[in-house]
Amino acid sequence: MSATPLQSAPAAPLTADAVAAVQRRTRTVLMIGQVLAGLGMGATLSIGAILAAEISGSPAFSGMAATAVTLGAALAAIPLARLARRAGRAPALATGALTAAAGALVAMLAAGLSSFPLLLLGILLIGSGTAVNLQSRFAAADLAAPATRGRDLSLVVWATTVGAVSGPNLIGPGEALGAYLGLPDLSGPFLFTVVAQSLAAVLYLVALRPDPLRLAAAWRAEQVAEGERLGTARPSETAVDHAPSIRLAMLAVAFSHATMVSVMAMTPVHLTAHGASLVIVGFTISLHIAGMYALSPVFGVLADRLGRRPTILLGQGMLAASLLMTGLGAESEGWVVAGLIVLGLGWSAGTVAGSALLTDAAAPDRRPIVQGRSDLVMSASGAVGGALAGVVLAGLGYSGLSFVTLALVAAVTVATLVTPRR
Questions:
Q1: Contact call for residues 22 and 213 (beta carbons, < 8 A)
Q2: Does the bond joining 244 to the residue before it have cis omega, within 30 degrees of 0?
Q3: How does DSSP classify residue 15?
Q4: What separation in angstroms does the CA of 180 have from each of 86, 119, 171, 325?
Q5: Which sign does the torsion angle of CA 333, 338, 342, 347 carry?
Q6: pLDDT value of residue 225
């Protein structure tokens, strides 16, 4: 059988210690990349909505910025996954980061020309940065041992906390820098995206060596060859896809994401309509983001020790609890804040455990493609959930939205309980 591009053997025989050392380095590089990407994305998403409303002349179009980012992430998922399979993780991650940097330049040009279509194109390209963030968690699992795969994956997710929390605070400095450089109004923060994403691309190309995906393929090939030589050859970890587990993992990740986006996106609208100040709204969303990322290593360890499926069920339990809090306590700011925190925790558990299960269930040579499809479905589910949430909010109110969204949680719970194991 002819070898794929990822199956090129290394110059010297590999050892378990050498692979473990590369994995530690890979994890560190990916975490730094997540921080850089988050710093740029955090400022962009916030200012993008404001700029969209100003250029279009209507606040009704401000939500198009978030939609464009999500759509951009979905469109980039499969191409980046195919590039990773063909050339390795580093080129794929760097390409996505540079595309996001180019998108920020386009958005700055749109601000100067007051072109709404050009702005949407720029933000669409910036969405590839989100696709890079999603693919990074899978890159952390390429060389990870199955027993620690959830932990390694979750640590990269956790690193997003720094950028996600700090990024929005760069809007003020970005505007000041833009004014100093004579840039159009509201375009200064995009400079941080250009610089941060460019630095991330250089980091991936320079420091992500040897490439984790290519090394993982070479390591597996060496193990198989050694087993055949000694007469102890045995099936690899996942010789073929386990389709039921893959479907379950994709469902858990996609529906956990759709649940989170649907409620989170409508919470500021609900709170401000009931007289909450912008300070309360910002505080609520900040706590929600902290819930999404800050404790992800805990759920990674639980996924390794308790199992992927029990942790998925734990996540669904927390999502259900959060929806009951926001549904029954919709008129109380305290209950809504608490519900958003638990909502973030449930998303974290479902996403981390589902991603680990997906990697376990996919055949090694097909993992990048399967992971790319999962990211595509995840982003698309979030976009659909966010779009439909506004319709449900208008018709049934915030409580009704929370109770309707429970159906997504129920679907994942039932699927987890009935899907056959390997």
A1: no
A2: no
A3: -
A4: 44, 22, 14, 46
A5: positive
A6: 67
Q: Which residues are CB-neighbours of 222 under 8 A, at least 6 positions away?
A: 9, 13, 14
Confidence of residue 3 (pLDDT cuts 50, 70, 90): very low
Which residue, 352, 250, 339, 260, is CA-closest to 310?
A: 352
DSSP 276: -
In this structure, which amino acid lies at residue 419? T
* Separation of first and last alpha carbons in the chain: 27
Query: Rounded to whole angstroms, what are the CA distances from 315 to 174, 303, 308, 319, 329?
Result: 37, 11, 11, 6, 21
**Which DSSP string corresponds to 293-324?**
HTTHHHHHHHHHHT-HHHHHHHHHHHHHHHHH
From 55, 323, 88, 97, select the one nearest 210 (Cα to Cα).
Answer: 88
Do residues 365 and 355 touch, judged by C-beta distance below 8 A? no
Of 347, 156, 163, the residue nearest 265 (C-alpha): 347
Q: Which residue has the tokens 């996919």?
A: 362
With 0-12 CB in 10 A as exposed, 13-18 as middle and 19+ as buried, what is 109?
middle
The answer to whether residue 47 scores a pLDDT higher than 90 is no
Work out the angle at residue 365's Cα, subtended by the Cα atoms of residues 362 and 371, and round it to the nearest 5 degrees: 50
Q: Angle 89-113/16-56 helices, nearest 10 degrees?
A: 10
What are the structure tokens assigned to 156, written together? 């990269």
How distant, in Å, are the alpha carbons of 6, 90, 198, 362 from that of 202? 22, 10, 6, 30
Task: Give pLDDT tens digits for 387-409.
Answer: 788 788 888 888 999 999 999 99
**CA quadruple 335, 381, 168, 173: dihedral, nearest 10:** -160
* Distance from C-alpha of 52 to C-alpha of 49, rounded to nearest angstrom: 5
